[in-house]
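Blinded run. Sample ID left blank on purpose so nobody reads anything into the name before looking at the predicted structure. Input follows.
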Amino acid sequence: EKREIVNQMNLLQTLSELAVKSSSLIHELQKERGMSAGFIGSQGTAFAQELQVQRIHTDNAIKELDALVKNFNFKPFRHEMKETLEIIFTELNNIESRRNLIDDFNVSVEKQIQYYITIINSLFIGINYLSKVITNAELSNQVVTYVNLLQAKEKEGLERATLNNAF
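Blinded prediction complete.
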């Protein structure tokens, strides 16, 4: 029984690291999404410099998550989590071409926002996976609460991106 608790705690620590890196990337993507919407909406007169700096922050968060995933042991987990992360990185590999479309005003704000939403929602799925793996009810509930908090923040960020474009 004690060995099982130790195994659960080790899995929790591993997944917690993944959740922290994922939520950090979510935060940076949300900021980039909002600035991109403002940049497009202003036809480049607003957020130009801030957006370039933010892209560096986003790239750093991507690199941190990528480094963790490359050394991640997926054996104790179902293939679902690995597949979700592969989808996320497939989308992230297209971020430069998306940024070029934004810089050239060749994408609508709606499509630009949707691109970021797709990645962010996939990252939520990965974080939410924690609650499925943890057998301790209290810890599982705390993870669900954390995911709900992140999703509320996401709704607020979407609102902010829309308003950045409008004003």
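Unblinding after everyone has recorded impressions. The CA atoms of residues 39 and 47 lie 5 Å apart.
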